[in-house]
Amino acid sequence: MQEIDLFKALGRSDQIVSIGDDLMLASNLIDKEDEETESLKRKFIGVASRLRNTVLVICSEGRMALRLNLRTYEIGANQMILAEAGLIAELIEMSSDLKIAVMVFSEKSQYFAPMQMEYLIIILKKIRHNPVFSPKSEMVERVRELFQSMFETIRDKDFQFREQAVRGYAMVLTAYGQQWIIEQEKGTGSIVRKETLFDRFMDLVVESRGRERKVEYYASRLCLTPKYVSEAIYMSTKRHATEWIRDYVVLEAQVLLRTPGMSVQAVSEALEFANPSFFCKYFKAVTGITPLEYSRG
Question: pTM of this prediction?
Answer without folding.
Answer: 0.77
